[in-house]
């Protein structure tokens, strides 16, 4: 399984708008993309506020999160992570 982690720093005071954009635009687009199995939104309410979208894929994703039309976000990046099976002796 491949995990894609997209993290964005939110403009001051705009966390609710960022959550709405991720929830209503980004997540549905990801889930409609071939190979996407699940999506989870995480938020950090500290300074600066940030939002993370974790998606799980059965194959390497061909997906770009894009950018909202206004200045809700100040920075964003994505990375692919591969899950490793834990072996307990």
TrEMBL record:
SUPFAM superfamilies noted in UniProt: Dimeric alpha+beta barrel
- Entry's InterPro entries? Dimeric_a/b-barrel (IPR011008)
Which protein are we looking at?
Unannotated protein
């Amino acid at each position: 399984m491949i995990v894609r982690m997209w993290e964005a720093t939110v403009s001051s005071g705009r966390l609710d708008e960022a959550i709405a954009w991720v929830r209503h635009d980004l997540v549905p687009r990801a889930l409609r993309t071939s190979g996407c199995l699940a999506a989870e939104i995480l938020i950090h309410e500290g300074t600066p506020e940030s939002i993370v979208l974790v998606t799980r894929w059965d194959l390497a994703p061909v997906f770009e999160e894009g950018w909202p039309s206004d200045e809700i976000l100040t920075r964003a990046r994505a990375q692919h992570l591969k899950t490793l099976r834990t072996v307990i002796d």
